[in-house]
From TrEMBL:
It comes from Pilibacter termitis. Residues 19-250 form the Glycoside hydrolase family 65 N-terminal domain. PANTHER family: GLYCOSYL HYDROLASE-RELATED (PTHR11051), PROTEIN-GLUCOSYLGALACTOSYLHYDROXYLYSINE GLUCOSIDASE (PTHR11051:SF8). Keywords: Glycosyltransferase, Hydrolase, Transferase. InterPro entries: 6-hairpin_glycosidase_sf, 6hp_glycosidase-like_sf, Gal_mutarotase_sf_dom, GH65_N, Glyco_hydro_65_C, Glyco_hydro_65_M, Glyco_hydro_65_N, Malt_Pase/Glycosyl_Hdrlase. Substrate binds at residues 348-349, 604-605. Residues 313-692 form the Glycoside hydrolase family 65 central catalytic domain. The active site is at 491 (proton donor). This is Hypothetical glycosyl hydrolase.
């Protein structure tokens, strides 16, 4: 029975896999991952398969396995596995007959269900599995299995279930075994500790079983504590096993006593407190918290293809299950909490692709994510100093905020030489520093958060500019400052000079810092003195003022093309048609190595085009159009970050049908039929990109030069789009049809202004704009 994806468009909330195929377990393990921001877990099957990847992570618990490896989120002991023997036969869907298999994630309440009928020899069972990670109780999760006997005779069942610490990160074991034991005869506990970071974990599990002729036996093995249950199921009757568990760690902020003893007692008390609550009532608690999320600025898309509506819900679901909103010492991993890919590290993906969702809809979470960058200033200083610079040079990959750079040095094999490829991003992909500054500035523009900007935001903006002051290199012959030996957003071009995106964003960072410092020196004297003492602004700002006019900014050729870097336009052009049509990514590297690709006009993802999108106020529409038509055919979109940028920019340029094609490809990165796309985890930044395509692209919302603009352009297949966002403390609701746009804010509160087609519009309560440019109040 071959697995395939199915989407239930009756209520636009369900993602379903029909049929079972053990070759493709990774797909639903990742895209149906469960979590609440504190923890995340892949949705692996209860029974084991050799092709599975059983991963559960707790945000922020980074550990370094060996001094030659970088820190990563450790794969914690597994709770979900249940080994079942029926009449002595292991339950396995790789043998016997499987009927009516379905595995479903309900996005509305975060419940995963799996059901099927399994027949083997004289055994026939109907099984229904359910599980969830609670949004109401941060440390808690629960699962349940209902087993109905469809056989002619009774069946004897054995279930082994508990806590399995024999988990690794692809072979790296991050935990010392620790103590384990049984409390009050029913609460299993395991207390491992991470080997290097010395974080204590307390994992607790208990079972409730309804079955006939039940007996049980505890079992302890190496890194395991399990319960064995033996029982019978008569024909046409069922047994029900419910399992409840929790995870606590010694870095949990809200825990008063973080000793192992204190955590053990707290975990058991929580289990006792919910003992009388049913599985359904605990799920209901979680669902109510989910409803708060869904009711905050809901998005409705009236499209010919109902998958479009499901896609935005899928994106929002994952943005919340993977974001550690509870702790500003933590941030979002590039695979969220759904897989080992990128080791749980944080990239520029947060500020450019995911942070905008939170900035516009959940500013308190955005503030926490940016506070992480503020806490990371020491790590950024450390990296700058190691490279001979000053100021804050943010790490390309970040883990615990004070760690500094944690990018691995070596990566995949070179197909030509057979040697490991050096990962240069951690050394020379430096636009991350201005990306962080961009995220801070966008947050300040949208929220007007005075406390944050004075306590943290201004310091980040000035400290990052201080880095660029030391990074700029003077070219005496040409009398300008340049940025040599970098990688831009296009990671297929290494060791290039004057990457347009890097130079322009550095220039913006420096220019903004100069204006900010001057403003503070005049109107916020005490704050300026404090920052001057910390950052030596009285020395740095004059230096920046001297260098700013001479920072080299690549200018368009006579054909109107902005060079991606000093040599890009001189390189060989390769027809990418077959590579763009291939399933998955990196098919180019079946034929070429990175060194060869480096010498061709091939772009991995939006680079110049991302610059044109983020800083659209700097460039005329005609210039953007020329560059779009030049660079897109040369872009493989091998990065999941690429398609959303192209979708939004092409919508801006009036290429609505082309934009919608990019949109469809983007939502299929994880939701598509290709069953291997998400094996290492979901594509977190791409999910942030889905929200941006809908709200920024088709809703037309944008911050341009610090001002709000709303200029919608719906795809032809969309009849209506409604969404909302927060702006300067006001809640804004937007409803767009083919004929008009209605913008509404609450009656009480401040008026807001926005720009529409170069016209400034003030909203006191509700305003209707006819999309033929006629406006009425």
């Amino acid at each position: 029975m071959t697995a395939k994806m199915n989407y239930d468009f009756k209520d636009d909330w369900l993602i379903e896999q029909l049929g079972f195929d053990s070759r493709y377990l990774g797909k639903t393990e990742a895209i149906m991952a469960l979590g609440n921001g504190y923890m995340g877990s892949r949705s692996s099957e209860e029974e084991s398969y050799t092709t599975e990847k059983r991963d559960t992570f707790v945000a922020g618990t980074f550990n370094q396995f060996d001094e030659n490896e970088v820190t990563e989120l450790p794969n914690v002991p597994d709770f979900w596995k249940m080994e079942m023997l029926i009449n002595g036969e292991h339950l396995s869907l790789e043998k016997g007959e499987v009927e009516s298999y379905s595995k479903t994630l309900n996005l509305k309440n975060g419940e995963l269900t799996r059901k099927f009928i399994w027949s083997y020899k004289d055994i026939k069972l109907e099984l229904l599995f359910s599980r969830f990670v609670s949004m109401a109780r941060k440390h808690y999760f629960s699962s349940k299995v209902e087993i109905k006997n469809l056989s002619k005779e009774k069946v004897n069942v054995q279930i082994r279930s508990g806590i399995d610490g024999q988990m690794t990160n692809s072979g790296s074991q991050h935990f010392t075994e620790g103590e384990k034991g049984l409390v009050d005869g029913k609460y299993m506990q395991m207390m491992p500790q991470t080997s290097q970071s010395k974080i204590d974990f307390v994992l607790t599990a208990t079972h409730q079983l309804k079955a006939e002729h039940l007996s049980e036996r505890i079992e302890m093995g190496r890194r395991q504590i399990l319960m064995n249950y033996f029982f019978e199921i008569a024909p046409n009757t069922q047994a029900i096993l419910e399992k409840r568990g929790s995870i606590y760690t010694s870095i949990d902020k809200e825990v008063k006593d973080s000793s192992v003893k204190g955590l053990r007692e707290l975990a058991v008390s929580e289990m006792k407190a919910v003992e009388e609550k049913s599985f359904s009532s605990l799920l209901k608690e979680s669902e109510e918290k989910w409803q708060e999320i869904w009711q905050k600025h809901p998005i409705e898309i009236h499209s010919e293809d109902r998958k479009d509506q499901l896609a935005i819900r899928f994106a929002k679901y994952h943005l919340h299950v993977m974001t550690p909103a509870h702790d500003e010492r933590m941030n979002i991993g590039a695979k969220g909490l759904s897989g080992e890919g990128y080791k749980g590290h944080t990239f520029w993906d947060t500020e450019i692709f995911m942070l905008p969702y939170f900035t516009f809809t959940h500013p308190e979470i955005a503030k926490s994510l940016l506070t992480y960058r503020y806490l990371g200033l020491d790590g950024a200083h450390k990296k700058a100093q190691e490279n001979g610079y000053i100021g804050a040079q943010y790490p390309w990959e970040a883990a615990w905020p004070t760690d500094g750079e944690v990018t691995p040095v070596w990566g995949a094999a070179d197909i030509i030489t057979g040697q490991a490829t050096k990962i240069w991003s951690g050394f020379i992909e430096q636009h991350i520093t201005s990306d962080v500054a961009f995220g801070v500035k966008q947050y300040l523009d949208v929220t007007g958060d005075r406390a944050f900007k004075e306590e943290k935001g201004y310091e980040i903006l000035l400290d990052t500019a201080k880095f660029w002051a030391s990074r700029l290199e003077y070219n005496k012959e040409k009398d300008y400052y340049e940025i040599k030996d970098v990688i831009g957003p296009d990671e297929y071009k290494e060791h290039i000079h004057n990457n347009a995106y890097t130079n322009y964003t550095a220039h913006w960072n420096v220019n903004f810092a100069i204006q900010l410092a001057k403003k503070l020196a005049k109107s916020h004297v005490e704050l300026y003195k404090k920052l001057d003492e910390k950052l030596d602004l009285s020395t740095i700002i004059p230096e920046l003022e001297k260098k700013l006019p001479k920072i080299f900014l690549p200018t368009p050729t006579k054909e109107g093309i902005i060079p991606q870097d000093d040599t890009y336009l001189e390189k060989k052009i390769l027809d990418l048609t077959k590579y763009k049509a291939a399933d998955g990514v990196d098919s180019l590297f079946h034929d070429y190595n990175l060194e060869q690709v480096n010498e061709m006009q091939i772009t991995k993802q939006a680079d110049v085009l991302l610059l044109l999108l983020l800083f659209e106020g700097l460039f005329e529409k005609e210039l953007k159009l020329k560059n779009f038509e030049y660079y897109e055919p040369k872009t493989t979109h091998d990065s999941s970050l690429s398609l959303s940028t192209h979708a939004i920019l092409s919508a801006d340029l009036g290429k609505i049908e082309e934009s919608y094609e990019f949109f469809k490809k983007a939502i299929n990165i994880d939701m598509g039929e290709y069953m291997k796309s998400s094996d290492d985890g979901i594509h977190a930044a791409s999910l942030g990109g889905i929200w941006q395509m809908v709200v920024f692209g088709y809703g037309g919302v944008r911050m341009v030069n610090g001002r709000l603009r709303i200029e919608p352009h719906l795809p032809s297949t969309w009849d209506k789009l409604t969404f909302g966002f927060d702006y300067l403390g006001e809640s804004i609701h937007v409803e767009i049809s083919k004929e008009e746009m209605v913008v509404t804010k609450k009656e009480n509160g401040n008026n807001i202004t926005f720009w529409y087609k170069n016209q400034e519009i003030t909203v006191k309560n509700t305003i209707t704009i006819l999309l033929k440019e006629e406006t009425k109040q």
